[in-house]
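Now for one specimen:
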Amino acid sequence: MTTTQALPPAEALPLQALISQTEHGIASRILAKTSGGNFTLFAFDAGQGLTEHTSPFDAYVMVLEGTLLLTIGGQPVRATPGTIVRMPAGVPHGLDAPEPARMMLLMLRERTDA
């Protein structure tokens, strides 16, 4: 389930309140979206994940809760709360959540008009 809502300006919001865990599933909420990329909050239940795929964006995973097991270009990466992982554009990547987890995903597209 994905929802999109602009965040109100000049307001401190608790991340936990912005997305609810989905039993046996994945929830996501797009917090900001522009032509240059997007910023999304994800909640994974234990055993959930994203199959290997590629993206035209550089992607940055910031783990908020739980553990995520990422595979980036065939290399395994274990990410825990307080860590950030870069997944380069065009490189196959996927992730698994062995326990309930929350993450922020920032995707940035390289400017082509520079």
Observations:
- Residues 15-18 form the longest helix (4 residues).
- The chain has a mean pLDDT of 91.
- The helical segments are 15-18.
- The longest strand covers residues 26-34.
